[in-house]
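[step 3/7] inverse_fold.run input=structure_tokens len=158
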């Protein structure tokens, strides 16, 4: 599989690339699953989401995709999945969001397997941020796990 385009996560005025797809569990539960058009080989899922962490809550704030309607490709946004909503609390998401950072240390042309100097993992339970892990991939991997109550930018130091 080709390396995949990252979704965007915004927090504390910063933009991060995510190596995780937090919309996937929501889409899997739908009875009428949307049939997103393949954007390109770097986006097999067919969409790119924009996300925000606000007051320790995860929200989807935008979506870019295309669908086929009557043999025509039509661009759709957040309103396609969540009509008349500007942002949606992601209470369906429990798991870890990976935010790679720094220089690439090993490029892998598959999914999100490329390795970076550092990685921040944000752990969510029903859309609420509960913990984080910082992994330093340079020297010896150092893993720190703590409760998350501060600002994202202050723990990741970027």
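[step 3/7] decode complete -> sequence:
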């Amino acid at each position: 599989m080709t390396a995949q385009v990252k979704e965007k996560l915004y927090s504390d005025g910063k933009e991060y690339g995510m190596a995780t797809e937090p919309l996937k569990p929501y889409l899997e539960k739908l009875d009428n699953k949307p049939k997103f058009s393949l954007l390109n080989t770097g986006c097999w899922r067919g969409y790119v989401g924009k996300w925000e962490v606000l007051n320790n809550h995860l929200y989807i704030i935008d979506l870019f995709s295309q669908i086929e309607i009557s043999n025509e490709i039509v661009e759709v946004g957040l309103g396609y999945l969540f009509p008349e909503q500007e942002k949606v609390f992601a209470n369906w998401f429990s798991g870890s969001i990976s935010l790679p950072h720094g220089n690439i240390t090993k490029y892998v042309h598959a999914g999100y397997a490329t390795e970076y100097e550092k990685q921040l993992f944000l752990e969510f339970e029903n859309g609420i941020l509960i913990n984080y892990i910082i992994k330093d991939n340079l020297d010896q991997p150092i893993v720190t796990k703590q409760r998350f109550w501060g600002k994202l930018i202050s723990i990741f130091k970027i």
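[step 4/7] annotate
Helices lie at 24-29, 78-81, 152-156.
Residues 24-29 form the longest helix (6 residues).
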